[in-house]
Amino acid sequence: MLSKIPVDTAMSRMKDTDKEILRAAIIAELDAVNLYEQMAAVTKSRDIRKILLDVAREEKTHVGEFQALLLEMDKEQAKELEEGKKEVKEKLR
Question: Cα-Cα-Cα-Cα dihedral of 5, 48, 66, 20, to 10°?
C-alpha cells in the first residue's frame, strides 16, 4: 500500500501546509528509524543488522534535514525547542 500525505491542503494556508508537510515527514522518518532498529534487534543475521542500523542512521539524518527546514519556517517552533532544552538542563542538575 502506498503512503498518503496526512495533510488536508484544502483546510490549510500554504505556509501552514508546508509546516504540516515537514512535520509529517519528520514523523515518517522517525517511524522508519523505529522500524529498522526493531528489526535489527530481532534478526539473527549480522549482515542484515548492519545494513538496517546503517539505514536507520541515514533516516536520523533526514529527520535533521526536515527539522532544520521546519525551524527556519516556524520561529515559534525554534523558540520552544530551545525552551525545552533549557528546561531539561535545569531539571537534570
Answer: 20
Candidates 79, 88, 66, 83; CA nearest to 21 is 66
Cell 533549557 appears where? 86
Cβ neighbors of 19 (< 8 A, separation 6 or more) are 70, 73, 74, 77
Q: Note the pTM of the prediction, 2 decimals.
A: 0.83
pLDDT (tens digit per residue) in 5-54: 766 656 666 778 999 999 999 999 999 999 999 999 999 999 999 999 99
Q: Tell the burial category of 4 from Cβ atoms under 10 Å away from its Cβ (0-12, 13-18, 19+).
A: exposed
CB 52 within 8 A of CB 36: yes
Please report, for the chain, the start and end positions of each structural domain, with discontinuous segments joined by +.
Answer: 14-91
